[in-house]
Amino acid sequence: MTGIFIISMENPGSELIIPGSFKGPLILGPGNGDVREATGIMEGLKIYQKDPEVFSVNISLV
Asked: Is the pLDDT of residue 35 over 80?
């Protein structure tokens, strides 16, 4: 599945999902350890970057 997301440079907390894109949830990481929850792509990426070897992030896109 493919998802295209646009993140505003002026308002990084705002993201636009292109119609027809994958609606999620988007899971970063192996999914076999501690799983954290996020409500947006940028939030999920920030959480995941802290320690990608230890936990996964489940990002709700709707």
From this structure: yes
